[in-house]
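Record type: ASSEMBLY
Status: queued
Input:
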Amino acid sequence: MESLAHPHSQSLEVHGHGHDHHDDHEHHEETFLTKYIFSQDHKVIAKQFLLSGIFWAILGGTLSSLFRLQLGFPDMDMSFLKPILGGWIENGKLNPEFYLAMVTMHGTIMVFFVLTAGLSGTFSNFLIPLQVGARDMASGFLNMLSYWFFFASSVIMLWSLFIETGPAAGGWVIYPPLSALPQASPGSGTGMTMWLISMALFIVSSLLGSINYVSTVINMRTKGMTFTRLPLTIWAFFFTAIIGILSFPVLFSAALLLIFDRSFGTSFYLSEIYINGEALHHTGGSAILFQHLFWFLGHPEVYIVLLPALGITSEIIAVNSRKPIFGYKAMIGSIMAITLLSFIVWAHHMFVTGMNPFLGSIFMFLTLIIAVPSAVKAFNYITTLWKGNLVFTPAMLFSIGLVSFFISGGLTGVALGNSAIDIQLHDTYFVVAHFHLVMGSASFFGMVAGVYHWFPKMFGRMMNEKLGYVHFWITFVGIYCVFFPMHYTGIAGFPRRYYSFTSYDAFKSFGDLNAFVSTAAILTFSAQFIFVFNFFHSIFRGRRAPANPWRANTLEWTTPIHPQHGNWPGEIPHVYRWPYDYSKPGAAEDFIMQTVPYSETASSNLEGETDLIEEEIPATQNA
Amino acid sequence: MSSQKVPIWEQESDVAQPTLGMNPIKFSTWLFLLSVVMIFASLTSAYIVRKAEGNWVDFELPPIFWVSSIIILISSVTHHIAFIQAKKDNLDQVRGWMIITALLGIGFLVTQWYSWVYLVQINVYFASNNVAGSFLYVLVGLHALHLISAILFVFVITGRTFRYKVHSKNLLGIELCTTYWHFLDALWIYLFAFLLVFH
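Status: finished
Output:
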């Protein structure tokens, strides 16, 4: 009833508002401001997220280079950084408080601003409407708001880096009481307040985005685009958004109670505490409660970061192996399983908080189950590559790199998930190595692969391949050089987040290893500027892209090379088949796009597919 | 594509091709409600976890919660009557019932305020070491904030009836408003029942 009534009443409404500037909402004039700044076009919003993400990634990487200098070369004279860091350099040394602040901000920036907003924000926005066959998101306006909330959040987080007491310094997990008591450290004052405000805005942005992504995937697919014909990218973005909708509100609750403890005198998280011999009025709070709430977001968050990268990889590996993805339904099943499991394993971050060992065993058991869907994914990537007609584009190399990190980082996850082994490994560099490989580097590689792969669709030009190869090899080798030695130091008990390890006899012998890691880290970070140069140079000077440069099947390559707002100039194409018909026996080409009906591919149709011809609606009959 | 002057919940898409037969904006609203559910689910489970740790001062729930619960239940009924009248194009009736609903909503907020007054009288404060009390203030306050947004929504929809924007062929706005209102009603009943069991 209603869905019939609406388009009609809508047109009445629009004309009722005839006093505004556009008479025809299909072709109204766009100003610079509405086209590039306050755009409601999902493609422009995606690019805004991408550019912001690149900015944040450079900043986050710079911070890590700075604290790696301290770790690798503790005796170094850092006076040359004084023009940039000012008072944070004291007598040629990095201020210890600022070291903690840099570690905190590096984590916050990379997890939320780069790998959540930069990754999901870019590719969910860009690919969902293009690959499901929609003109735009369910609500372009909310989508625009999503970016601008993120922008506001970014401004506040960036601003907090420049205040006198420094940004938040209690670690990206902001555990109370460090984060709850302004007296705890310089960063726990204004810096922490700004962190909380910034993250509140970030949560709003993320929710607006996620709600849009889910609505669009469910409600706005083109004709014929059934769920089992969706590319795996869309499946991954879809479940990522669901995780976001379910977990970010919990972070909001956690932050709300933290704000009450900080500023209103409640005792949700704060227990009896003495500072400088003086008892605070708080009693009876539970710091563990915060950890429960935080990790209920925090653990799903790592899948918010990782799943889009895995989805992007599925697509790129299938396209460049010229083979159907191995186990399409198993891939969907494993994404679902990971989504489900991601909500019931959070306490494995808390094994050493004194939790009931029996409860620890349950969480250990659930955690180890994640290895199953993860292994399914790794297996399917490798079997897709197996005997494929491999095309080593930079995107393909980065995708294969992701698979490598996913496996090597995932294996250490199996070790860390054991509640007994975790007693030794907790809060050591082993953890740092684990999540930087499996979540950080893998997701980063997925993101970069996505940029190389969809750059032609975004900007109508190709990125330089040779620079891409150089970028890949330096980064790939570099990342292993950075994180592999950390396993070793971690097993030896080397704790993370320590400003100075040289004062401990047990860790003095790691000086050389740390110098090696730091050198590798700084070189790897420097190599990213090859990518940045390639990216911006190619936007203006890159080779002009053909319509379908990778000979891929998905819908985005049926749009014009420079798609306008609305994506397809005429009718939205219909979809007749799944997106992975590569190298189909009997087919004329080694790919059959999703828009090609079975009636046109008689030579390659499999049993059963010929029957589908009768159900096909000729595109012309369908207005 | 679509006109920016049209409120979000009205933007029906000439661009959209609904395949689920559900309006994308309506679907988005349900997803929004889901995220609100998660906020309160996390707070009530935090309540249980915290209570299990002991050091928990018990006190009587404000009896006025029974009154506020009845008020919000009635307001749900009046809002629904308004929705039914909108389907029948009885705009005068719609306005009347919407205004009654908004007044009942304000009445609910007043009773919730008096629940805080009661708490202060029995020496249960928000900023105190009695976490049980702080939780009660947070749950009531956060729910009240949502209800304020719902009352504003009711006013917006009521305003639109005067411009003849709500009628049997344009029900989306009032339907979303009704959904939100029922949701907040159910949410309060859940919170009250939860507090009765676990206080």
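Annotation: DSSP finds five helices and no strands in chain B.
Annotation: The domain at 65-199 of chain B is CATH 1.20.120.80 (Four Helix Bundle (Hemerythrin (Met), subunit A)).
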